[in-house]
Design goal:
This protein is mainly α and 135 residues long. The chain is 70% helix and 0% strand. The radius of gyration is 15 Å and the shape is globular.
Length: 135
């Protein structure tokens, strides 16, 4: 029999998997960093467990890896791809994505730009495969 505590725990876990962008409370630099780190650590198939609206959130996008975007291009429903296209059409949102990537790079030290390059490559992948994301 499930207790109230186990039901709440299941709800918390499910929410974090499906809506990482809503599970860190107040949206500030620290929570955006945490969300991006969470997404970056996910397996390809786990990325598709995120609610489609999550793909229109800078911190979720900033956490995508090249392998994730290819998986999304190949297996995600149309609404996931539409959210990505909508996000990338907003210059302010793209700038925020890069700010989050820079925060991730600061964790790596040594003036790393690894995460900024990763984000740049993902955006280029979406541009190069725009037809896949639009239809």
């Amino acid at each position: 029999m499930m207790t109230r505590d186990s039901i709440e725990l299941k709800f918390d876990i499910s929410g974090k998997i499906e809506m990482p962008h809503l599970s860190y409370g107040k949206v500030g630099s620290a929570s955006k960093h945490a969300i991006a780190s969470d997404v970056l650590a996910r397996k390809n198939e786990d990325v598709l467990l995120i609610n489609s609206t999550g793909f229109n959130v800078c911190s979720v996008f900033a956490g995508l890896a090249e392998r994730h975007i290819e998986h999304i291009a190949n297996y995600a429903p149309k609404e996931y791809k539409k959210e990505i296209i909508d996000l990338l059409s907003n210059i302010a949102e793209v700038e925020d994505i890069f700010r989050i990537a820079k925060l991730l790079d600061e964790d790596l030290g040594n003036n790393s730009t690894k995460n900024q390059e990763r984000v740049k490559n993902i955006i280029q992948y979406v541009k190069d495969n725009k037809i896949v994301f639009e239809f």
